[in-house]
Amino acid sequence: MTETPDQQPTLPFAAGALAGLPGATPAQPTAVLPEITQPHAHTSVLSTEQVTAPLPGSAPTTTLAPMAAPDPTTAPATASMPAPAGQPVFAPAQMSAPAGRPAPTAVPYAQQQPPQVPQAAQHGPQAPQRPAQHPTVPQAAKQPREARQGPPFRIALTILQLAAIGPVGSMLVTTLFGSFGLGIGLSLLLGVGLLLLVALVYAVFGVAWFESQRISGLYGIAVPTIVWQPQTEPGFKAWFKALCQQAINGRMWRSVANFVIASLMGMGVLWLAQGFVHGLISMFNTTSSVLQPGIVGMLLCGGAIVGLALLHRIVSVAILGSAVAEEQLETQVRVTSQQREGAVRAADVERTRIERDLHDGVQPRLVSVAMTLGLAQQKIETDPAGAKELVAEAHTSTKAAITELRQLARGIYASVLDDRGLDAALSALAARSHIPVQLDVRLADRYERTAEAAIYFAIAESLTNAAKHSRASECRVMVRERSDGMLWARVEDNGIGNARVVAGGGLDGIMNRVLAAGGTTRLDSPQGGPTTLEVSVPCAF
């Protein structure tokens, strides 16, 4: 069959396909498609094998003619499926490729690779990951603004900003300094000037914040944001203390100094702009005595304006860029101080717990053993049988005391962490728990000893609290290594909730130990439960 543009194609198997419909003309028992030799360029060709249509008055059947084994390089593998009653079945052969395109190569089913199952589908929920950047975000949006703006654009924008800041900044700086002198004078005479000084601190803070944001947006450099000093506690005294700390904040005054310098440069830009305009006007003068000096003056003024713009960048980076290193140093000092304080508090809490366990557990049991052996010593001659029973009782108490000492030593540090790692230690911990524990640990390697110990004791204390205080009947423990290099653990129970951090308590010890390891904790325990504790510590230092 060949299709022409003026003639619709006729399908020889149409009668067989419509044989099962009511009122259709009975078709021949079989319909064979003739071989297609020259398909039209715009026609998709489908060749089939022998098709059997149902005979009138008989049950519809579908049979396939015997086919040779397909070549794996030329024909796709097919799977036989039962056909619905009354419908013909076609065995597709290889399709003809359009002119200019290579024929598609089918892969046999036996050689096809099974679909890859995502990691989350194979192993259940994963640890929370850092949110990935959306793939459709343009790369330029992720780069600093300085990388997206060319030097001519930045220079032009700097010149415009300096021209705008020049007169406005000069008036603002004059007003601020005048208000400062007036406030000092009135405060010495009448005391009313204190209100003016308070308003002056807020105004200077606003100028400093504006300048830091302007430089950061203009040059794309990391300038620390100017923030107001927080109050440590409510009340007028704490507010006044925060106000005084803000008034002597060096970072704020550096931004103000840069704003004053920018105002002076802005006035210089406006003065040079006048000379540039005069030189530009002189270009339209035909007199050579006026034209040549005008051009020279215009070039000199333009170059000086560009030089001021470049100098403004150098000065701004020198004044405000140093605040970045200062802020990083302050952050490191603050974190180190917090870790040191956490380690000291964790040691105090641990020492208090050991003293309490020895005083309440092992010590009374050892005293009981000594008293029992003393009674046995007195009865050993008069009542040997009774003395024997007392010795047996002392022996039992001694073994119980040894067990308590082992548990106490395990609470100080679990030796299984060094021997077999965190996974095995948590498995042993879950086996000793008084309530059922669903343990889900997926760790690829051993980690730093401090990190493993922090995770282990956090989970151990959580399981103890769940058994003693929360009335939980089940606990779920999940441990993962996150992609950001943090060892993450989550403990959740179905208890009554309402867990609180008490100074010297178990949760306080957990947080101090994790803080000393450089990690963070998050406790969520509403009234009625459930209680969830999440711990994250760095895998290595």
Automatic annotation (TrEMBL):
Keywords: ATP-binding, Kinase, Membrane, Nucleotide-binding, Phosphoprotein, Transferase, Transmembrane, Transmembrane helix, Two-component regulatory system. The chain crosses the membrane at residues 155-178, 184-210, 259-284, 290-311. GO terms for cellular component: membrane. Residues 40-51 have a biased composition (Polar residues). Its EC number is 2.7.13.3. It comes from the Bacteria. GO terms for molecular function: ATP binding; phosphorelay sensor kinase activity; protein dimerization activity. It is an enzyme of class 2 (transferase). Residues 9-31, 59-84, 102-135 have a biased composition (Low complexity). Residues 350-413 form the Signal transduction histidine kinase subgroup 3 dimerisation and phosphoacceptor domain. It catalyses: ATP + protein L-histidine = ADP + protein N-phospho-L-histidine. Residues 1-148 are annotated as: Disordered. PANTHER family: NITRATE/NITRITE SENSOR PROTEIN NARX-RELATED (PTHR24421), NITRATE_NITRITE SENSOR PROTEIN NARQ (PTHR24421:SF10). This is histidine kinase. It comes from Leucobacter exalbidus. The lineage of its organism: Bacteria, Bacillati, Actinomycetota, Actinomycetes, Micrococcales.
